[in-house]
Design brief:
Strand order of the largest sheet: 7-6-10-11
Strand content: 15-25%
CATH architecture of one domain: 2-Layer Sandwich
CATH class of one domain: Alpha Beta
CATH superfamily of one domain: Band 7 domain
Oligomer: single chain
CATH topology of one domain: Tetrahydropterin Synthase, Chain A
């Protein structure tokens, strides 16, 4: 007996057992129907998905973003549409359209009239969970919302990159600014349909072979300029460092010399002050001694002057007194003085009466 035949035999045996009680058969059938209705009345919302539940009787629309089981009334009362809200990738590459997420590569005409191509432009986008109902109403169920990506992305990227020249678009800074402008403009349009672009990744644009060679040559020149600029910056840094070292050494030498000179100056000033003090002391002493000697000399001079004046007065008195005496008295006095003295008189003129006598000492006596 085959496996199928065994299963049929077991089912027939079970029906024969229940045949005795038809009420049990109806209960089992009702339970099976309820289970089937329950399974058809529940919908599972997976993580990364959004459910849009529409009440076909009242027209009420609910957007459910929480993963789990949701209730769907049977017999066409509720309609539930699941929308994939996980991050998705849109590519523009190759020479033909493959599907809604992979279309042909992006060609752009620059502002100077030249053309360039992006080999693989990648756009990361997703459905805004809270706008799930808008996505279903505008695009339809399933992944129909992907149809918005190709026209918007291609037209806006062409527009933004078309504003740039071939020279500016090859500059990474300008290139990134154009990409960000395009992302903002795309979001302004896609958010109305419940979509959001999170990132746009564009490769380096591809030009004609001649222009690519020119770009390569310019990049080499820029690299050389960068190297030269780096060398100049390093040279300037070395120059600044060496100047700082020279200034430091010169300042150190100047400080040392200044300290030595200040020390010598302080020593000289101290020596000068000491010498001046000693000189002043000696000067004071010498002046005091000189003043004392001068005072003594003056006093002695006054005394001598007094003595001389007294002697002069006495002599003068004697002379005056002697002058008025008679000649006899003078001769007497002269004789007393000339006692024992031999006088030799020689006339100076043939005059019998001499008028002048010259007295010389003889034998030490006057």
């Amino acid at each position: 007996m085959t496996r199928g035949e065994k299963a049929r035999a077991q089912a027939r045996s079970a029906l024969d057992k229940l045949g005795g009680d038809r009420s049990k058969l109806w209960l089992v059938g009702g339970a099976v129907v309820l289970v089937l209705i329950a399974f058809r009345s529940c919908v599972t919302v997976e993580p990364g998905h959004v459910a849009v539940r529409v009440n076909n009787l009242t027209g009420k629309v609910e957007t459910i973003t929480q993963p789990g089981l949701i209730m769907r009334l049977p017999f066409g009362i509720h309609s539930v549409h699941l929308v994939d809200a996980s991050p998705q990738t849109f590519h523009m590459r190759g020479d033909r359209n493959v599907n809604a997420l992979e279309v042909r590569e992006l060609t752009v005409r620059a502002s100077d009239g030249s053309n360039f191509v992006f080999n693989d432009t990648t756009i990361l986008f997703k459905v805004v969970p809270a706008a799930g109902a808008r996505v279903v109403f505008d695009a339809g169920t399933g992944h129909a919302y992907r149809m918005w990506m190709s026209p918007y992305a291609r037209s806006l990227l062409r527009d933004e990159f078309g504003r740039e020249s071939t020279i500016s678009v090859s500059n990474p800074t300008t290139f990134g600014q154009a990409t960000e402008r395009a992302r903002r403009r795309i979001n302004e349009l896609l958010t109305k349909h419940g979509l959001e672009v999170t990132s746009i990744v564009t490769p380096r644009p591809r030009f004609s072979d001649e222009y690519e060679n020119l770009i390569e040559a310019r990049n080499q020149t820029d690299n050389e300029m960068s190297v030269i600029g780096s060398n100049l910056a390093r040279a300037a840094t070395d120059r600044t460092r060496r100047l700082a070292e020279v200034d430091r050494d010169q300042n150190k030498e100047m400080q040392e010399k200044r300290a030595a000179l200040e020390e010598a100056l302080a020593t000289s000033v101290a020596t000068q002050t000491q010498i001046r003090r000693e000189v002043d002391t000696q000067k004071i002493e010498k002046v005091a001694i000189g003043q004392a000697a001068l005072s003594a000399a003056r006093q002695r001079a006054v005394e001598l002057k007094g003595q001389l004046d007294a002697q002069y007065s006495g002599r003068k008195a004697e002379i005056d007194a002697f002058r008025v005496q008679p000649v006899e008295r003078v001769m007497e006095r002269l004789g007393q003085r000339l006692e024992g003295v031999t006088i030799e008189i020689q006339p100076w003129a043939n005059d019998s009466v001499p008028s002048r006598l010259q007295i010389e000492r003889a034998g030490g006596a006057l």
